[in-house]
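Below is how a single chain appears once it has passed through the pipeline. First comes the sequence as given, then the structure the pipeline wrote out for it. We keep one example in the README because the format questions we get most often are answered faster by looking than by reading.
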Amino acid sequence: MLRYNGSFPAAIVENMPHRVVIVAFPPAQMLDISGPLDVFAMANVLSRNAGQPEPYELVLAAPEAGPLATTSGVSLLATHSLHDPALTADTLLVAGGPGARQASGGGPLIDALRALCERSGRIGSICTGAFPLAATGLLDHGRATTHWAHFDEFASQFPDVELERNALFVDAGPCHSSAGISAGIDYALSLLEGDQGRALAMQVARGLVVFLKRPGGQAQFSAQLASQASASDAHRFAELTQWMADNLEADLSVERLAERMAMSPRNFARRFVEKMNMAPAKYVERLRVDAARRLLTDGNLPLARVAERCGFSSPDTMRLAFKRHIDVAPNEFRARFRSTGRSVPPPA
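Resulting structure:
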């Protein structure tokens, strides 16, 4: 049985339970709903097992109370209607899915969502739940993110929102947003950590068998996955690219990589670009930036040591790579993303 042996801040205990309302539009993305709900539900289980009050009350709302269709073909039961004027939330999360994008065109659903937002404390979106949330106007002149596959669609539909294309979740401004699907779990864990502290968040992450956090500034997927998604034949260099990721401090020049593949440097470079849709040097640099971001967020190593461990020749080389790929310096990145919960207000 899972048990949480820590204690909660007294001020938070006194104000329990904190009502989390997830609003979804049919057909909804199942994991956008179940992922965050399981994070908060696990926190309740651990708290109850420790003899503590359950920190969260969980509510699923939809345009109408009753069965809620999802993209998986399994219906969920929404206990509340979005149109219910008595519905309130301490934390309101808007789930994504095809229905969410369809609802963002305006009309009574967006009016009802805007009214619910006005009756809520903390507000956020999961995946393409950013579309209806943006349609309320609450994201105007602020920053937000959504699923990578819908970046251009979102930017076109909501030009007054600054789209963060390189973030798992964004907590700037009056509303939060998180990226594609499973990022909702990362976001919910960050809210939990901000509400209840790292100890409980760690216990929940262990119970769900996930990382405690992928920081908000991490990309929606790694350089390896991004390149493989666009590759015409990722398998051709699969063993090599895995070795590269595991040996970032090694000499990863075209000459050394070609030697490892028993190819001439010229032929290797040409074949790599053909198959991976990216030059070898650029691929190496993206791997190193990914690794440096993890070290900057989760550790206290000096910048020079981070650069060394990730294979950069100097901190200045790492800084230039960061500016090229994510348009922010390493020290700025560390200051912004080191703590997941620093800017998340506690429950009211």
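Residues 1-13, 339-348 have pLDDT under 50 and may be disordered.

See the next section for the split statistics.
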